[in-house]
Design goal:
Blueprint: H1 2-24, H2 29-49, H3 55-66, H4 68-79, H5 86-99, H6 106-115, H7 117-130, E1 135-136, E2 139-143, H8 146-158, E3 163-168, H9 175-189, E4 193-199, H10 211-217, E5 221-225, E6 243-247, E7 251-255, E8 272-274, E9 277-281, H11 285-299, E10 322-328, H12 336-347, E11 351-355, H13 363-374, E12 378-384, H14 390-397, H15 400-405, E13 409-413, E14 416-418, E15 422-425, E16 429-433, H16 439-444, E17 447-453, H17 457-470, E18 472-475, H18 484-495
Parallel strand pairs: 3-4, 4-5, 8-14, 11-12, 12-13
Antiparallel strand pairs: 1-10, 2-9, 3-6, 6-7, 7-9, 10-17, 11-15, 13-18, 15-16, 16-17
Helix pairs in contact: 1-4, 2-3, 2-4, 3-4, 5-11, 6-7, 7-12, 12-13
Length: about 500
């Protein structure tokens, strides 16, 4: 709620400045009207000409036509300025530089091609268009709760000898952070290089004002991503939503868990908080290290070679499976995160199970979900039984009717709030990451995921899904409350999905 209020307040300030400028010229009504008309036409043309996120074009066009001043202001603040942001352009450049250190082993791709042509097309897409290689013979472990992964993560951090990199959307004062800080303080005194990236909005009002100074005194380097500047910020809605831990290049964690007490159920907010993460051990860890430096070097121009942070693993063939860590940012020409989900849905034969805390899909994703169900694929989506954001919960439920009508099965996790972000298909492939199925995750945030194929860990992920179905409520058409007012309200709120 605090994060939403800060974003809305910042946007309100910028809109007020924008509107005030227009009011100055309001005495020249005809000129003002012509100016708005010409500005709207140019904006609509610009929106139509953009190739990324075609489904979102309708949202902006309708918003601008329905609310010319508000819609135009919002677009100039949220929908366009990221392309003119020097910070984002530099970050995009650093992303490409970091990826130069990532090399795809063509033998691995050909090996997958010989096993499954459909999977080959998916990983080849990630390799070519996202720039992240797929690796084999990495050990992957799936943790179905925050409590479970937290204990393992602490053990690995305690073993660190060279460096510890943490990149999290939210860091909050509490038991979890204080325990981690105690360990990090000790490791820093041992000479371990510790760097932390946290998002300013994600951690807003959750950390003390002297947070960075305190860590600096302990020898811990910090980076506050995209600080909130209400009047001059042009990329305030582009947040670092990734959750990554990297230790010595040997171990990496990725998933939905932030550093806050609710994620390990030390603080009860919305019933039991269910989340998950994967641990990767092997040469794929270098991809997570690359993601970290994409952002770190945008703020700190360190002279470095990613090879310095790479651990040389001994080759082993006794670990089954393949893994492909990947990331996405709002300047990418491809909607990689969404496209991977759509590809997996389109190529599924037996089932697709999805965990997501929020469901605000665009037309392409709705088509993929409904078409898969119509083809006879067992498509199931699990959402929270107790919401953390009632407005988002209401919007998510507004999509139930069209999904249920197409044969998609919807579950609500009754013990509490489900924050996991997982897709598993056909007992052979899965994605665990930070992507929610909503506008902000798929289009405006910095996100990451772990694509897994033909690994023994798939069974663990499926078992978690089956256990979750057992304690979740199956939603039917009779559970959907509809009215003209509610439908209109939800339709209106969908227009503001970029902010929610």
């Amino acid at each position: 709620m605090i994060r939403a209020i800060l974003i809305l307040f910042s946007i309100a300030v910028q809109i007020a400045v924008f509107v005030f400028g227009l009011i100055i010229f309001s005495d020249k009504y005809v000129l003002f009207q012509m100016f708005m008309l010409i500005l709207s036409i140019f904006i609509v043309i610009a929106i139509v000409s953009r190739t990324r996120n075609p489904g979102n074009k309708v949202l902006w066009i309708v918003l601008i036509l329905a609310f010319p001043i508000l819609g135009t202001a919002l677009y100039l603040i949220l929908g366009h300025n990221l392309y003119r942001s020097k910070r984002l352009k530099l970050l995009f450049l650093n992303t490409n530089i970091s990826k130069e250190y990532l090399t795809q082993d063509d033998e691995v791709l050909q090996e997958i091609k010989s096993k499954d042509a459909n999977v080959y097309s998916e990983v080849n897409y990630i390799s070519n268009f996202a720039g992240y290689p797929i690796y084999k013979s990495n050990k992957i472990t799936y943790y179905k709760t925050g409590e479970e992964v937290y204990e393992k993560m602490k053990e690995d951090i305690k073993k660190a000898e060279k460096y510890i990199f943490l990149e999290y959307f939210t860091i909050s004062e509490g038991v979890m952070w204080q325990e981690l800080l105690s360990i990090l303080d000790k490791k820093s005194k041992e000479g371990v290089d510790i760097r932390i990236i946290y998002d300013d909005i994600g951690s807003a009002a959750l950390l003390p004002k002297n947070f960075n100074k305190t860590l600096k005194e302990k020898g811990i380097k910090t980076l506050c991503f995209n600080r909130l500047k209400p009047v001059v910020s042009t990329i305030l809605n582009n947040r670092d939503h990734r959750k990554i831990t990297v230790v010595d290049g040997k171990v990496a964690y990725c998933g939905g868990i932030n550093i806050a007490d609710e994620y390990i159920n030390k603080k009860v907010r919305y019933g039991y908080w269910k989340d998950c993460m994967v641990k990767v051990e092997g040469d794929a860890v270098i991809s997570f290290t690359s993601m970290f430096f994409e952002i770190w070097n945008t703020y700190y121009e360190d002279e470095y070679s990613l090879d310095e942070y790479k651990y040389n693993f001994e080759k082993t063939e006794n670990i089954k499976g393949y893994v492909c860590p990947y990331a996405e940012n709002p300047l990418d020409s491809e909607n990689v995160g969404e496209n991977i989900y759509i590809n997996m849905l389109n190529k599924a034969n037996d089932y697709v199970y999805i965990f997501t805390p929020y469901l605000i899909p665009d037309t392409d994703l709705i088509t993929a979900l409904t078409l898969s169900a119509k083809r006879g694929v067992d498509v199931r989506i699990v959402l929270p039984g107790i919401p953390d954001k009632k407005i988002i919960y209401s919007i998510s439920r507004s999509y139930y009717k069209v999904l249920l009508g197409s044969g998609v099965k919807i579950y609500e996790y009754m013990p509490g709030f489900l924050h996991s972000k997982v897709l598993i298909a056909d007992d052979k492939k899965a994605v665990v990451g930070t992507f929610n199925l909503d506008y902000r995750s798929l289009y405006t945030h910095f996100e990451c995921g772990t694509y897994i194929y033909d690994s023994d860990v798939i069974e663990s992920i499926k078992n978690d899904a089956m256990e979750t179905f057992e304690i979740s409520k199956v939603v039917g058409m009779n559970d959907i409350k509809t009215s003209i007012f509610r439908n209109l309200l939800n339709a209106f709120l969908r227009l503001f999905a970029p902010l929610l």
